[in-house]
Amino acid sequence: MKLAEALAERGELVRRTEHLKVRILANSRHQEGESPAEDAAQLLSELTLALDRLEVLIRRINRTNSIAVVGDGTVTDALAHRDVLRIKHKVVSAAADAASGREHEHRYGPRQLRSELVYVAALPVSELRATADDLAARIRRIDLEIQSVNWQYDLAEE
Fold first, then answer.
1. Smallest Cα–Cα separation from 28: which of 45, 50, 18, 43?
2. Rounded to whole angstroms, how far apart are CA atoms 24 and 147?
3. 123 in a domain, yes or no?
4. Whole-angstrom Cα distance, residue 29 to residue 52?
5. What are the pLDDT digits (tens) for 82-105?
């Protein structure tokens, strides 16, 4: 199985466990004399099997990511770098929005009266937007490199 296939299965298992959780909670109690729509104990058994499989996949994916080479490092290194770039992109974009007044149009817009306070940007909005665009492009490149590697490597054994 390729790493990409394992990642897809992991995603499906995560969705399945969330769905099972909702069904378990919906059928955990019922009125006396009534029957629940589904057997909550059976659903819990299904959840346990899905979580056991998910744990095995996560371990194998993590092992594979730590040995799969992408660029000058491993997939694990690339994921860490991408995560940090995403955080930086979010902060830079939020700073640009705040400096441009987009967050609070009513507070930062033009004055209605001469006595109203005027807000000015403390950061260079256009430079921040350019930086955010550059960060987004770098994130996309890393994502593409990781996706390519995901189809090249077989999943590590248990």
1. 43
2. 35
3. yes
4. 26
5. 999 999 999 999 999 999 987 655
